[in-house]
């Protein structure tokens, strides 16, 4: 049976892509985008079974205030936070505010769906990998803070970064090839490698992930 849910995020492209994917899997999506400031009020008004609530900065003060507000007004709504790799404090803050789960925004749709179903069933929905990363960081407090954009840039070659920027600009394979002075087959190979390294299944998902993490801004900065 499909879940009555909402996808609330101020990155419209990501929210709409995720909402469409969940609709195709039989779920009833009530809304797909909203500014962060109005997220809680929108969820409270619609009262879904589960809310996927996006956050770009889980470490920022007040990042999970919308979660706390939703749980105060609609305690029956299960909130699953969708965001970048959190620090242990980020995970703790999300659950302290009342979240039922935390899902990385580059998780595959199957993982997102599992989290939704677990949250609706009243279970905690956190990927074992996230918990493992959290414990490792707690055991190694000297480690540098997570930086998702920098991590992603680290797995891409300079040429693949350029391809990603062009994909995010909406260029098709032919235009990418022309702009980079390479064969279309080579451009297609670069695009496939970018998708594989980012762990996404489509150009739309790659563009959304790049925008969400700030990777595009980093790529355009000095030394990119």
TrEMBL record:
Domain HTH luxR-type stretches: 149-214
DNA-binding found in the keyword field: yes
CDD domains listed in its UniProt record: LuxR_C_like
SUPFAM superfamilies listed in its UniProt record: C-terminal effector domain of the bipartite response regulators, CheY-like
Pfam families: GerE, Response_reg
Keywords recorded for this protein, A-Z: DNA-binding, Transcription, Transcription regulation
Domain Response regulatory: 4-120
Keyword Transcription regulation: yes
Full protein name: LuxR C-terminal-related transcriptional regulator
Organism: Streptomyces graminearus
């Amino acid at each position: 049976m499909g879940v009555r849910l909402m996808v609330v995020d101020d990155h419209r492209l990501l929210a709409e892509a995720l909402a469409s994917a969940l609709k195709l899997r039989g779920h009833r999506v009530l809304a797909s985008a909203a500014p962060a400031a109005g997220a809680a009020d929108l969820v409270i008004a619609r009262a879904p079974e589960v809310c996927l609530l996006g956050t770009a900065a889980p470490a920022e003060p007040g990042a999970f205030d919308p979660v706390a507000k939703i749980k105060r007004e609609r305690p029956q709504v299960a909130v699953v936070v969708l965001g970048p790799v959190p620090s242990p404090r980020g995970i703790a803050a999300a659950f302290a505010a009342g979240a039922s789960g935390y899902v990385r925004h580059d998780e595959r749709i199957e993982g997102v769906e599992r989290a939704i179903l677990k949250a609706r069933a009243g279970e905690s929905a956190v990927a074992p990998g996230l918990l493992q990363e959290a414990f490792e960081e707690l055991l190694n407090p000297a480690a540098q803070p997570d930086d998702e954009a920098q991590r992603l840039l680290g797995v891409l070659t300079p040429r693949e970064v350029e391809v990603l920027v062009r994909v995010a600009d909406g260029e098709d394979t032919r235009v990418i090839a022309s702009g980079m002075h390479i064969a279309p087959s080579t451009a297609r190979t670069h695009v496939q490698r970018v998708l594989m390294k980012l762990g996404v299944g489509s150009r739309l998902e790659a563009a959304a992930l790049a925008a969400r993490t700030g990777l595009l801004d980093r790529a355009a900065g000095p030394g990119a």
